[in-house]
Amino acid sequence: MKELEYPFDSDYLFKNGRKLKKQLLSEGGPFIDKRIAILGGSTTSAVKDMLELFLLNFGIKPFFYESEYNKYFEDGMFENPELKEFKPDLIYIHTTSRNIDVFPKAADDKETARKLQEDVFFKFKALWESIFDKYGCAIIQNNFEPPMYRLLGNSDCVYPGGAVNFINGINAMFAEYTYTHKDLYIHDINYEASCYGLNKWTDLSYWYMYKYAMTLSAIPECSYGVARIIKSIYGKNKKALSLDLDNTLWGGVIGDDGPENIEVGQETPMAQGYSEFQSYLKRHAEIGVILAVNSKNNDDVARKGFERPDSVLKLDDFAAFYANWDNKDLNLKRTAESLTLLPESFVFVDDNPVERGLVAGNVSGVAVPEMDGVENYIKILDRSGFFEVTALSKDDAERAKMYRENAIRSNEMAKYEDYDSYLKSLEMKAEIGAFVPEYLDRIAQLTNKSNQFNLTTWRLARSEIEKMAADSAYVTLYGKLADKFGDNGVVSVVIAKVNGDTADILLWLMSCRVLKRDMEFAMMGELVKKLKALGVTRITAHYYPTAKNAMVKDFYALHGFVKEEEDEAGNALWAIDVDKYNEKKHNIAINV
Amino acid sequence: MTREEILAKINEIFRDLFDDDSITVNDATVASDVDGWDSLMHITIIGTIEAEFGIKFPMKDIVGMKNVGQLVDKISELSK
Fold this sequence. Notes:
CATH topology of chain B: Non-ribosomal Peptide Synthetase Peptidyl Carrier Protein, Chain A
Number of helices of chain A: 22
Number of domains of chain B: 1
Shape of chain B: globular
Oligomer: heterodimer
CATH class of chain B: Mainly Alpha
Strand content of chain A: 15-25%
CATH class of the largest domain in chain A: Alpha Beta
Distance between the termini of chain B: 8 Å
Number of helices of chain B: 4
Shape of chain A: globular
């Protein structure tokens, strides 16, 4: 709902809150239900009302528990049957600098101030630990906004006795603890208050009269910040940016002006604006956000814009590139399909309100921020919080790269007349060997995640896998596949048990990321070689059907196995004599 | 803006806030006359009136207001 997207009109939201809520409940959804307890150090009623609107708009239907005024500590710290009964999914601790019990004196030394900071920190730490212990749920914790006055003036941020210095120190302690505790999230009202303007944020009449720690119209900002975190935790973040080009990524119209005349680089104020915006977008790869082009242009002309040496974004920053004369809603849906993402996972970025209206109207769930003036682009995207980060791993930085590589592979495929020469062109290299410690986590992950290319769907814990790897009765194999475009990592896992001169294949799986590359032929070749060396003359194998693995029903027939038994449910036993096995041809160089 | 115009606008604000088109306020209306006009709603009412009229009530005036009539007087004084 447009009214609840950044930049929202706080006064409008208060005035029309009840109407909006009704509308969201009747027109929105489907919703996921979440039970949220708000423990407040000040009045939280309006914070809750606004949070409800923003969450409904994100597809989350909240049920609330509110602590009594300023009873946040007692509520979370001590036995609380009502809260226990409520069974919170998440607890939001809405405290502010008003809840810092004691500040240092102006002339206090470092040690004294440090001691007081620790008092504040340990009080909150005890509260968090109590909540984790009693409720086992996630916690969102406000940090502290700057103080409303500075007794020491500018030195307030320097002297240990300065309130600014004191609060900065506590915020750093909160951040450090949060960084190492998975289910604790900081809501950074310190930054929010700065953005909003501290003078406006601390309108003292709201404190004196109603015990609101911030002015009424700042409350939606605060609630929106919390809603961003909650929707990120529950997987409602956006995943990709669908980007217009002319007057969005550069100034001017490349088809009319020519690539040499578009505004990007450092020569003009406008050019600097577009370049900085490009840098901002490029950095999204670091958090795993996918970039795609969606432009009305001739493809060859559009690409030239990124071939300029001063273009920050390069062609290979994009996972998909749709420059044509089709409608943009259609191109966005195509982009989604080609990347196996949902259209609602996209943010559509375009300076043209007509295009935005078309996409917003025809692609349900897509975010369409109002991009108005290049000097505002970064702020609009950043404050909207489409990609709010609540967990960040090395994989995130790799994700954009893998999507890009897959897109390049499918483009490459189109260039070849037959599939075999395409496979040859990939210059595939595999590493195939017995399980090694560094891959055990990934192997365990694959046994628990793979559904489609999985013959027996045998789910295994890391410890079980470790045991089999060390047991000489088992032959284990992992397969890693790389090609000229990139490394896919470990993608196939096989476990067989040897009993005298026969071997039984208990587990065979492969990631669908590498379907149709003949990796399974390479794996079988290596397996048979190993088993032969152990004196095995006959191999048996199984297929157990599930709702998802029909694609490998006749997998063993491909390799020359014969079906020996099959029950009514479709569970099948396959077998082959080792000397009848002929390795299937493939284009993968193994262990080179 | 005349007193009548101000009162009409306040009435409209109340109807929006309570999402109830049957509400009618007059000079004598006090909080207990309107279902749901509690201390928390009061804050939103004051905030919304400030935003709609583009004014800011001094704190001493808010704490002294007894009924809608005094509210209208204050708005009329501040929006001159």
